[in-house]
Amino acid sequence: MREPLIIAVAQPLCMPHDVAVNAETHAAAVRSAGAPVVVFPELSLTGYELDAPAITVGDPRLAPIVEACAETGSLALVGAPVHGKAGRSHIAMLAVDGTGVTVAYQKVWLGGAESERFSPGSGPPTWPVVRWAGAGPSSG
Asked: What is the mean pLDDT of residues 17-36?
């Protein structure tokens, strides 16, 4: 039997529209969580400001989170607006690990004012958690 997968859920204090500051607080949360997976709220990198500009996976302001994940071996799932098709954006969950950032998920069911700016995603994905998957079965 595998060891249990420990998932930390974090809600750091976020500054409206300040991705750089929010990335630093996310990085600190990753370091203090001590978990292979750390999950943050949607749009947490922009302080849940619906009018915040979309970011890209190559945004240098995300480097502190990548560095924290490299130090801890964690996968951080952080919320941010990302560019979509036809000039509309998506509310996304970014997967951040020690090697970089990818878009893991685009929110499917939009509520309230979200649909005025954002487009829905196509559906839920699966995501491998390498640190946990490598644990293997225990003897006994």
From this structure: 97
Closest Cα partner for 84 from 121, 39, 129? 121
Q: Kindly list the structural domains of the chain, giving each domain's residue range(s) and its CATH number in brackets, ordered by start.
A: 7-133 (3.60.110.10)
Whether the CB-CB separation of 79 and 41 falls below 8 Å is answered with yes
The token pair at 137 is: 């079965």
3-class DSSP state for residue 99?
coil
Q: Which amino acid is at 36?
A: P
CA distance 57 to 81: 11
User: What span, in angstroms and rounded, lies between the C-alpha atoms of 106 and 59?
Assistant: 18
Residue 36 DSSP class: S
For residue range 55-107, list pLDDT tens digits in order.
Answer: 999 999 999 999 999 999 999 999 999 998 777 899 999 999 999 999 999 99
Which residue shows structure tokens 């060891």? 3
d(CA 19, CA 2): 37
